[in-house]
Amino acid sequence: QVQLLESGGGLVQAGGSLRLSCAVSGRTFSSYAIGWFRQVPGKEREFVAGISRGDGVTDFGDSVKGRFTISRDNARNTVYLLMNSLKPEDTAVYSCYAEDIKGYHYWGQGTQVTVSG
């Protein structure tokens, strides 16, 4: 069973930065594509960022391009989401997922990010 644990959320002022971490259990971390979605109550879930297995190709949602970066540390089974120049509209619950080679997604519980303006 794959388990994901997010950390690093919290309250930050607009313009500030936060780094979220997603720790993934198991011995096949490098075989997973990892990413982040976010959700605000009453709104659809929004893709934030993803990083592929293998060569680590990254992808970002339009609203965060140029402000967020994603990286992975295969030795620590962890993916990081560095969020810079945060805006109040970035406030949401951020959840990470791991996609296995069959396309199945595992999800974490989420971490709250609140940006005060």
What oligomeric state do the depicted chains represent?
Answer: single chain
- Classify the beta-strand content into a percent band: over 45%
Q: Total number of helical segments? A: 0
Distance between the termini: 40 Å
Structural class: mainly beta
Could you characterize the architecture of this molecule?
With 117 residues, the protein is mainly β. The chain has no helices and 11 strands. It has strands at residues 4-7, 10-13, 18-24, 33-39, 46-51, 58-60, 68-73, 78-83, 92-99, 105-107, 111-116. Strands 2, 4, 5, 6, 9, 10 and 11 form a 7-stranded mixed beta sheet that branches. The protein is globular and about 40 Å long. The model has no long low-confidence stretch (mean pLDDT 96).
List keywords for this structure.
117 residues, mainly beta, seven-stranded mixed beta sheet, four-stranded antiparallel beta sheet, globular
